[in-house]
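anyone seen this seq b4? input:
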Amino acid sequence: MIYLLLFYEFFKIGLFAIGGGLVTVPFLFDLSASYGWFSAKELADMIAIAESTPGPLGVNMATYAGYNSAGLLGAVIATLGLVTPSVIVIILVAKLMNKYQCNSRVQTVLSGIRPAVLALILFAGLQIAKLSLADLLSGMVFAILLASIHFWKKSPIFYLCISAVLGIVLQL
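predicted toks r here
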């Protein structure tokens, strides 16, 4: 039963998480509250791990959440649930986009979806900030890294490594 539920819930996420991996985060907070498959703290850890590993964030998080709740088979089923709607939609869009891409109604729909995607990404960022910036020291590290990223355009890998070292040294 849990496998069917995992597929169903991640299928819904994959169907409605328009805009990329970060848009899956609000859906995952809902899963956490509804099923208890993982806590909010574990979700923050999942996000950190998924952002630090190769591959799409949403897929990594579905795999992790599925594994966390139902083992290896759960990981496979949750991942398939998440990607199945995308495969279906991409096939349909590829067939229809050439025909309708200049259609004003299609452009209007896409223009209407963009602000919703941005709102979902910002909501996800705020939820992650609430979990991650729990104390003054974490907030200071965040502010310094944000300023550094803005002024010194280094590789994201550089900032991830610096953050990992700071986490160890400062025991964050």
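The first helix runs from residue 2 to 16. Residues 133-172 form one domain. kinda curious what u guys think
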